[in-house]
Amino acid sequence: MSHNRYLVGRASEIAPGARKIVEVEGRSIGVYNVNGHYYAIRNVCPHQGAPLCLGITTSFVTSSYPGEFCFEMEGEIVRCPWHFWEFEIKSGCMVVDPKTRTKTYDVTVERYDVSIEDEDQLFVHL
């Protein structure tokens, strides 16, 4: 299988905690900087096709008892703007049902550029 690479911008364009949405051959992809590491997910919620990456980036909130709130995975969760389904940016998996997921892409930083790879698609350079 061949890997295709697509230049999506400079690393400095996506600050820690930020994301950039790119269009490649009709596919919308969100590229995230999570604590200095880059991840890319398809900008489509598997529930009803919402633009997932337009949702807020947040934490996973847990609670052991009423009134207690623990914030885990700070900045590693994206919440769908339509129905608030939450997905891990690193894996593309839904938080409460990991079998439900959105597509992820490998991200490579070369010198100062950020690109994504996909084994099966031919994307153009951006």
Automatic annotation (TrEMBL):
Residues 6-116 form the Rieske domain. It comes from the Bacteria. CDD domains: Rieske (cd03467). Pfam families: Rieske. InterPro entries: Rieske_2Fe-2S (IPR017941). One of its GO terms (molecular function) is 2 iron, 2 sulfur cluster binding. This is Rieske domain-containing protein. It comes from Paenibacillus solanacearum.
